[in-house]
Amino acid sequence: MDKASVPYCCSSRCWAEWERRQMLPREFTEEQQQFRESYRRFLATEIVPHMEAWREEGLVDRSAFRKAGEQGLLMVWPDEKYGGIGDTDFRFEQIIIEENAYARTSDWYCTLHSRLAAPYFTRFGSQELIDRFFPDFVGGKKILAIAMSEPAAGSDLAGIKTRAVDKGDHWLLNGAKTYISNGINADVVIVAAKTGGPEERHNMTLFVVERGMDGFERGRKLKKMGKMAQDTAELYFNDVRVPKENVLGEVGKGFKHLMHGLAEERLIGSTGYLSTAQLSWDLTRDFVRDRKVFGQPLSDMQNTQFKMAEMRARLDIAQIYVDQCVRSFNAGALSSEDAARAKLTTSELAVDAADLGVQLHGGAGYMDEYPISRQFTDARIATIYAGSSEIMKLIISRQCLSDGYMPFNTRNF
Predict the structure, then answer these.
(1) What's the rounded Cα separation, in Å, for the pair 127 and 129?
(2) DSSP 361-411
(3) Which of 14, 94, 361, 370 could pair with 10 as two cysteines, CB 3.0-4.6 Å apart?
(4) Cα(232)–Cα(237) distance, rounded to whole angstroms?
(5) Backbone phi, then psi, for 155, in 5-degree steps?
(6) Among 151-160, 331-340, 372-381, which stretch is predicted with the lowest mean pLDDT?
(7) The whole model's pTM is what?
(8) What is the DSSP letter of 62?
């Protein structure tokens, strides 16, 4: 069975059989396989038919979040009293990310809402904040974003200029953010702002800013190279009065809180990058098998065989590592270094797999009508956001070149 025939129509049993024949077995429960089947059907009926129109508009319609929420497919992990099923196993989100990649609906940033931003409330928010917001988050009635990046501060988060001043019964927030995903759609934005003196670079606090607050304004919906349907925006905060109860976590500890979620953010990214790379390979496989060159399929050419085999091996090995990272995360043991290794490897793979696909498609690969073209432009951001490849290399090198590094194989002679 060709993988191109799998999306939206295959039973969980067939899916497991397909995976068994393709690579080393992956570990999903029967419930999760059924969830994959349900989620795949949801994408086929509610998301895929609208994606092209949303790309033209530069914005995924808010109804996508609401419809997913109504079917219990937006946020799985929250407690049942909020509308979830109370299962925190990351594999449910892994399925969501993989299926969006295979369906070419990754422009819809549902995981940013459900698994990147929302957990800040349960980790650091008050019970009042959780009770007030979570029913609407889980139901897709309110959309989340997180605002860290600024015009002069990206990877160097300590360099942000946005500032909040304690006014007794509220905080007064001023500043600007840019490149904010879900920026146009967002009803609730987690905003990082400095709250200490000029010398306290890491003294910042996380604030919950809500749609309709005076002084909270949206700037341009930014045009991008790829991810055309995903709304990326500038946000402005001009004397925004933020109630004291809208503080997430401890005052002055926002930098630490943000670092706490980085391993999961990079695992989310890695899952998506690798799934995107897997699709790029599949699209290329179909093309080279069909394309005739000098009277024979392009797949009969040794160069094509070698290039595709090399990429297939890289993808399969990376998949095993990412799946192991998921198991480690579920056990509460995923380190920042392991997450950085996954993010570095998979983001580079996403770019490489798409680049190989464009090359083997020839002139067709440069045409927008061929999916590989968008795979290429969409993949390019992978090595930049959620920590650039250069930052990942710094994190990895600090660990493996430190005095505390443990050699892979220690000997006493």
Answers:
(1) 5
(2) HGGGGGSTTSHHHHHHHHHGGGGTTTS-HHHHHHHHHHHHTSTTPPPSS--
(3) 14
(4) 17
(5) -65, -30
(6) 151-160
(7) 0.91
(8) T
For the beta carbon of residue 357, count every other beta carbon within 10 angstroms.
29
pLDDT in tens, 202-238: 999 999 999 999 999 999 999 999 999 999 999 999 9
* Cβ partners under 8 Å of residue 112, min gap 6: 144, 145, 146, 181, 182
In order of 10, 93, 120, 211, the CA distances from 247 in angstroms are 45, 27, 11, 16
- Which listed residue (265, 337, 348, 369) is catalytic? 265
Active site residue 265: yes
Residue 163, beta-bridge partner list:
174, 194
Kindly state the percentage of the chain with pLDDT values over 70: 94
User: In this structure, what token pair is assigned to residue 335?
Assistant: 């380190």
Statement: residue 7 has pLDDT above 50: no
Handedness of CA 348, 350, 351, 352 (dihedral sign): positive
Q: What gap in Å lies between CA 348 and CA 84, rounded to an integer?
A: 34
Q: Rounded distance, CA 364 to CA 367, Å? A: 5
Distance separating the N- and C-terminal Cα atoms of the chain:
53
Range 151-158 contact pairs with CB under 8 angstroms and sequence separation of 24 or more = 151/176, 151/178, 154/179, 155/387, 155/388, 155/390, 155/391, 157/192, 157/255, 157/258, 158/201, 158/202, 158/255
DSSP 173-194: EEEEEEEEETTTT-SEEEEEEE
E strand or H helix that includes residue 121: helix 119-124
377 Cβ contact partners less than 8 Å away, ≥ 6 residues apart: 225, 226
